Automatic annotation (TrEMBL):
Keywords assigned: Chaperone
Sequence similarity: Belongs to the nucleosome assembly protein (NAP) family.
Lineage of origin: Eukaryota, Viridiplantae, Chlorophyta, core chlorophytes, Chlorophyceae
The name this protein goes by in its record: Nucleosome assembly protein
SUPFAM superfamilies xrefs: NAP-like
Composition bias type Acidic residues, residue spans: 257-301
Region (Disordered): 1-31, 252-301
PANTHER family registered for this protein in UniProt: TESTIS-SPECIFIC Y-ENCODED PROTEIN (PTHR11875)
Entry's Gene Ontology cellular component terms: nucleus
Record has Chaperone as a keyword: yes
Molecular function per GO: histone binding
Signal peptide, first to last residue: none
Amino acid sequence: MSAEPSPKRLKVDDEEGAEGVDAGAPAENGAAEWAPEAEDTLAAELEECQRALDKVNDEASDRVLAVEQEYNKKRRPIYAQRAEIIQKVPLFWQRTLLSHPTLADQLTDDDSQVLEYLMELDVVDFDDIKSGFKVVLTFSPNNTHFTDKQLVKSFHYGDDGKVTIEPAVIHWNEGYAPFPESGGPSYYFFEWMTIAEAVGEGTPDEVAEVLKDEIWPNPVKYFLNGEIEPAAYEQAELDEGLLEGEEFDEMAAGLEDAGEGEEGVGLEGGEEGDALYEEAAGEGEEGFADDGGGEGEEGDA
């Protein structure tokens, strides 16, 4: 049995081996020995890689934005056609908003009474999309609560990420202005329309997010799930030609078809997106008259 090397001999071998090893050479476990003087060089190389990635990400964002702008233009005629159908449905927007799970517990009876006169709800992105959007409410001339035909609330996104809110101004008729502290009308939704502060935690604005991202893309989803007492329909001042019975069912099917068309006009782009759009819109953008009628309606009939 051979004798074990003395501790003195081991120490000499270690010193000799250390002298022959490059500080940057891989260790026995495969990892490189860290040389402090190389830190600045490696940091500079990593920063250069990050700048290259940021450049590509910016280019990708610009391309996505351009595609979204293109398809927003294609969606507008379908939205216009949908709005024309909706105006034939009594209390459509009242029922839709009251049926949303987030808004249902917030809207007051006074809100509901005003919503009976809401003819159109529109969410319009600004031209460059990323700078913000606005919510536009259009009311019946028979509205007894205020004199405004339209209410507009805008959300502007700054480059620093800050959101600037431009609220609506409501000119209430006598007896309808909010005075809950003295037993007068109490509003949630219409108070929200008039305030410049964000509502909700963790989002730019909870109500705006619900309108823009949930209700606006597919209001029929909430309308069909909602319930309005029959008396509300009887009391509403309905224009001639509003749908009921089998015609109402056909209208609902038409709205669902329009919703499917909107989903087809998405960011996928290319021939598939264009084909789906043309299918939903009949003859394409040319098939929609400026007033939302004409050939566009015939294509969906």
